[in-house]
Inverse folding.
């Protein structure tokens, strides 16, 4: 069993990396081949220079993504079969901190190690790629402050939660995985409820929307679609990046609508209304509830599997660890699972793209499809999103349909 699982894991890890490299290289080649000419349907809205800017940006990001995939794969192999995790666990067990104490220390040490290894990629992405293409607004000081704040909040929330999970794993009997699932699900819901008012304001400033004409337009749309929210806010996204966005947070009547200030600058009032109508479509078609339900079901399935592996010696040995423990089971599971689930990525992408079409249809019925098309073209242009993704890469990864298909669909839906 041990040998068989070790080879299965190695095979899955290698296959995942090969698949990622193949898709990424295809994507880069496809974009390069279509770099010389703006696709005909965008020719009057996007200049050749803007098209090439988007092509170069997409290729640079994809290249960095490929490098990052190689590093991640090497890291996972080194931690497991390379024996790094086993070595780390042996050092910590010498400190005699007890099951939960050493479990927490192991997770913290691993988090620090992986963050240190991914730091150069993150720095390069922000201060080289994003800066070169004119998107980055962050200074190194902000980057460091964000990292410190993020780690402090992560530790404050994550460590007690992890301690509780490790305690349940050790003490709650054979159905511990069910208890952990309940705790995890409750925690997720609590975060959805608390994030907008407690955590997000630590990183950004949120102010009520002041533009009265736009506010009235938005309130008319909300009334028309029977939507209740706790207000429309503008977030100072421009502090970090010139990429624009809009989103909803919260639950029930405590929902908040948040616009990045960058988005408000990019779009006209009619276009903002159309984008908001699309976001409302996600709520009205119950996409959010479906997504959360799906995530809960998936985590229950994974925890059940972990429940079967917790006391299986072969699972630890196959992944290069000599001494089983609850924290080690969690870590190995999180390291090994993505290698097996990566080939399923297209299924979740397909589901997500179907939801995007449904939200577009809703927007077309409640607002003007013409304005949504105009908004999309502007967003593609200003965010330098490529108009010519490799079709296979897009089918595999993309949560949103390619621009040309999405616009064609909206034009078909136009009443
Ligand atoms: Zn959407």
């Amino acid at each position: 069993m041990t040998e068989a699982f070790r080879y299965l894991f190695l095979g899955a890890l290698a296959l995942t990396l090969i698949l990622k490299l193949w898709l990424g290289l295809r994507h880069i080649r496809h974009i390069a081949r279509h770099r010389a000419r703006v696709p005909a349907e965008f020719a009057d809205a996007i200049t050749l220079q803007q098209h090439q800017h988007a092509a170069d940006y997409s290729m640079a990001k994809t290249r960095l993504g490929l490098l990052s995939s190689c590093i991640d794969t090497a890291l996972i192999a080194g931690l497991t079969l390379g024996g790094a995790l086993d070595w780390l666990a042996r050092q910590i067990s010498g400190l005699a901190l007890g099951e939960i104490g050493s479990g927490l220390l192991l997770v913290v040490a691993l988090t620090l190690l992986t963050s240190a290894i991914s730091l150069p990629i993150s720095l390069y992405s922000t201060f080289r790629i994003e800066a070169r293409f004119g998107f980055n607004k962050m200074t190194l000081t902000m980057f460091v402050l964000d990292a410190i704040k993020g780690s402090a909040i992560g530790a404050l929330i994550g460590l007690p939660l992890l301690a509780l999970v490790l305690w349940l794993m050790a003490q709650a009997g054979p159905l511990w995985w069910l208890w952990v699932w309940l705790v995890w699900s409750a925690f997720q819901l609590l975060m959805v409820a608390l994030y907008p008012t407690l955590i997000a304001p630590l990183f950004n400033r949120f102010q009520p929307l002041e533009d009265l004409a736009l506010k009235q337009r938005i309130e008319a749309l909300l009334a028309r679609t029977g939507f209740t929210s706790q207000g429309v806010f503008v977030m100072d996204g421009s502090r970090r990046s010139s990429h624009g966005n809009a989103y909803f947070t919260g639950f029930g009547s405590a929902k908040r609508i948040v616009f990045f200030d960058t988005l408000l600058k990019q779009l006209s009032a009619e276009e903002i209304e159309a984008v908001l109508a699309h976001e409302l479509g996600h709520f009205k078609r119950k996409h959010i509830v479906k997504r959360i339900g799906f995530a809960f079901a998936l985590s229950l399935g994974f925890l059940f599997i972990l429940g079967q592996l917790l006391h299986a010696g072969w699972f630890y040995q196959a992944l290069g660890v000599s001494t089983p423990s609850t924290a080690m089971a969690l870590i190995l599971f999180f390291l090994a699972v993505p290698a097996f689930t990566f080939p399923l990525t297209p299924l979740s992408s397909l589901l997500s793209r179907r939801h995007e079409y449904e939200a577009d249809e809703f927007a077309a019925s409640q607002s003007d499809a013409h304005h949504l098309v105009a908004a999309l073209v502007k967003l593609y242009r200003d965010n330098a999103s490529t108009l010519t993704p490799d079709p296979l890469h897009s089918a595999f990864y993309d949560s949103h349909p390619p621009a040309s298909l999405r616009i064609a669909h909206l034009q078909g839906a136009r009443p």
